[in-house]
Amino acid sequence: xxxxxxMAKGNRIYIxxxxxxxxxxxxxxxxxxxIGTVVAFLDDxxxxxxxxxxxxxxxxxxxxCAGILDRGHDSEALIAIPSASRNQLMxxxxxxxxxxxxxxxxxxxxxxMVSADPHMVQAREMDPQDLLGREPVLIDLKxxxxxxxxxxxxxxxxGGSIGSELSRQLLYGGAERLYLLGHGENSIWxxxxxxxxxxxxxxxxxATIVPVIGELQDTDYVRFLLSRLKADVIYHCAAHKHVPMMxxxxxxxxxxxxxxxxxxxxxxxxxxxxxxxxxxxxxxxxPTSVYGASKRMAEMLVLGQRAVxxxxxxxxxxxxxxxxxxxMPLFKEQIFSGGPVTVTHPDAKRWFMTxxxxxxxxxxxxxxxxxxxxxxxxxxxPVRIVDFARQMIRFYGFDEDSVPITFIGMRPGxxxxxxxxxxxxxxxxxxxxxxxxVGFPAVSPHEVHQLVDELMPILRLHPxxxxxxxxxxxxxxVVIRRFPTxxxxxxxxxx
Length: 495
Hints:
Blueprint: E1 12-16, H1 20-32, E2 37-42, E3 52-53, E4 56-59, E5 75-79, H2 86-98, E6 104-106, E7 124-125, H3 129-132, H4 141-144, E8 152-156, H5 161-170, E9 177-182, H6 185-200, E10 208-213, H7 219-229, E11 233-236, H8 243-248, H9 250-270, E12 275-281, H10 290-303, E13 311-317, E14 320-321, H11 327-336, E15 341-343, E16 349-350, E17 353-354, H12 355-368, E18 373-377, E19 383-384, H13 385-395, E20 405-407, E21 426-429, E22 435-439, H14 445-459, H15 472-482
Parallel strand pairs: 1-2, 1-5, 2-4, 5-6, 8-9, 8-11, 9-10, 11-12, 12-13, 13-18, 14-17, 15-20
Antiparallel strand pairs: 3-4, 6-7, 16-19, 18-22, 21-22
Helix pairs in contact: 5-12, 7-9, 9-10, 14-15
């Protein structure tokens, strides 16, 4: 049972886990003097319960904390057990929620804890992806990132969900410079500030961080930029990726995702970049949406460079939990609005991997792929979206009586289920159990550039064919000739 004693009032922090990580955080909080006061450790170890460590009592078991702790409105729980399994975290979270903690924070999982020296700046609010994803794979980031040590690294779309997590994990790689490229000043400002805060707190290594605002569709700018940055490694994350939104803006989807990628590839080759990694999607496989077709064309542009011996590669994976435009933030908003939570179809399925795990695997893949090629991340078993919605409702302490689920039908360009490779592609095992190499038919650079040339009068105003500019019907004709699985809506306007 919990051993409760009188504790200091004020900003009160309960650290869950009286091990190495918990004690490191307690020392940092004590030295800081501003964050708050650690009033107790919570632990299940019977040998620790009832002891005092560093002047801080160890209480437990964790499951008994509801209704006993004198928390107050300014108390929070901080979970400092990076090795905890999903089931352990689920039990801990339920206990803390029943105990009435209004704020529950957590350290990154052990797969992202490169050093045994955690810092408060790494703690973040706990959310459903900590409980609902599969068990994360353990990756030694320092070893995996040896190929970036002393190099100049560019991340496009660095303010997005994947790009920002790549940037965080790249802090451990010992890169000389880390270029953060994006066209949204607020998102780039946000990730730059976060990375500098992490460095100031002693997290990672002292790479020079350089924020860059720019547009990949600007050919001259991209060529000029890469000639000056001299990046050795490029992670290309930037893309328009919201399927229904891109179905409403198909020309812009192709212009951004295809021309932006082509500009970056050509500039990278001119600047003698040694490694290029395109972040792709399962929606590029037998695409039904213009977005999916645009990502498949981007894949073809990258894979077509292998013929000249460059280390250009594609890493393709499915849905990740918590990314912008994904269902997790949407469901959260709907749950706290009282519902309904909207699901497209009762049989719709998706893979769900956490962003940190996906990014760790991308970084590992780029180290494995010495000769480029196409790689997949093993996403595990797909999950019904409606089951995921029910889990989220329970995570936030509700049920389907108070927050109902409604089915709204499939949206334009969506599939009930996704695939990670097509019938012409052949998956092969690699040395890592969750990274798959794919054999694929040779990609002809001529064929790809011919397709892009067909699209150019639609994407950019050409004096000889002004009627083609931004013509959505013409765009779909060109796209569907190459990708017949793409849907052709009857009611689409011409422009």
